[in-house]
Amino acid sequence: MTEKKIKVTCDGTDYVDYKILVPLQGDLKIISDDNLQKLKNSIIKYGFTAPAFIWKSGKKLYSIDCHQRIKALDSLFSDGYEIPDIPIVYIKAKDKKEAKEKLLHITSSYGEFTTTGLADFILDAGLDISDLEIRLSEGEFKLNLADETEEINEINYDSKLEIVVELNSENEMESLYNEMIDRGYKCTISTL
Questions:
Q1: Closest CA to 134 of 118, 123, 157, 117
Q2: pTM exceeding 0.70
Q3: Vertex 77, ends 73 and 78: CA angle to 5°?
Q4: Tens digit of pLDDT for each residue in 51-109?
Q5: Strand 22-23, strand 60-63: pairing
Q6: Which segment, 24-38, 63-77, 114-128, 177-191, is predicted with the most confidence on average?
C-alpha cells in the first residue's frame, strides 16, 4: 500500500501548518477543477517544492503567494493525505496595503513566451510536457518530438501570442523565466 504523505522538497526559513495561514488574495484568482487536479498531481509527484511567501502581522500569518497550493493541500488532506508543516519565507511589509502590493508584484506577469523560445527550451532540456498545459491566445503550440531533426511546426501571427505553461514548482518557473529573459524574450510569470 502506498503511503499517502506529501513530501516537502525544499527548505524555508520556518515551517508551519498550512491551515493556520490567512489568505491575503481573497477572490483575486480562481482555479478550475481540472487545473486543481493537475496541481494536486504535481504535488503528489514532486512534493511541496517551493516555500510559501508569508507576511506576518501580529500573530497572524498571511499567505501572499500560495493560495492555489493551499487549495490543493486542502483537497489532498480531504483525500486522506498527510500534510506536513510547509516551508515558508517571510516577506516584510509595513502594513496590509504594502503586503497586497507585493502580492501583485510577485504574481504579475511581466514577460512573454514565444513559440520558438518555448519549443527550444523544451527540446534543449528534453522535458516531458505531457503534464503541462500550454495555451496560446491564438492558434496552437505544436512540437514534433518524434522527428529526428526536432523540427518545430511554427505558426506565424500578426498579433501578440500568449503561452501558459503549468509547471510543477516555483523553482522550475524561475528557471524557465530566467532562461527566456537571458534569450531576450519578454516573459510573464503568474501562479495558479
A1: 118
A2: no
A3: 120
A4: 999 999 999 999 998 999 999 999 999 999 999 999 999 999 999 999 999 888 887 76
A5: parallel
A6: 63-77
Residue 183 β-bridge partners = none
Residue 21 DSSP class: P
Task: Give dist(CA 89, CA 87) in Å, integer.
Answer: 7
The helix-helix angle for 115-125 and 170-182 (nearest 10°) equals: 120
Structural domains of the chain, with CATH: 14-106 (3.90.1530.10), 115-182 (no CATH)
**Single-letter residue type at 143:** L
Q: Are 52 and 63 in contact (CB under 8 A)?
A: yes
* Contact criterion met (CB below 8 Å) for 167 and 176: yes
Say which amino acid occupies 128: D
Distance CA 63, CA 99 (A): 10
